[in-house]
Amino acid sequence: MFDLIAQRKVADVVFGSRFYGRPHRSLYFHHYLANRFISLMFNLLYNQTLTDIESCYKMFARDVKDRLRLSCDDFGCEIQLSAQIARAGCWRIYEVGISYYGRTYAEGKKVGWRDGIKALWYLVRFRLAA
Question: Checking CA distances to 103, which of 18, 24, 81, 110 falls within 20 to 30 Å?
């Protein structure tokens, strides 16, 4: 990620994708489907081709950071950041594979189906935002 932004200077924003990276621990199937669906909806609404909008691995140049404004205090920040970046339409966005070692619920996984519903709401909310 750092190489694309700071050294090669070909990207302004780099997203990590658990679906490109190796190795990765197998996801729960329903979480996999939910992630793919949320990413698909994001791509449709924001005219992008990202594979894993909810990965948490995001890096951006300082000028990008200075223009982002967050109001969410939950997983919605993933979509809010991504929506602002996509809507700006002026930054070069790249995606790279990341290694992923997912947790089970017993190991501390906290995301649930309610978070998926909220994510869909945030997709629409931030698309309609001025």
Answer: 81
Q: Hey, which bits of the chain come out as E strands?
A: 13-17, 58-60, 93-97
* Whole-angstrom distance, CA of residue 34 vs CA of residue 116: 7
Distances (CA, A) of 82 to 12, 16, 43, 87: 13, 12, 10, 8
pLDDT tens for residues 16-66?
998 887 777 767 888 889 999 999 999 999 999 999 998 889 999 999 999
User: pTM of this prediction?
Assistant: 0.89
Confidence band for 100, pLDDT divided at 50, 70 and 90? confident
**What's the count of helices (H) and strands (E) in the chain, helices before strands?**
5, 3
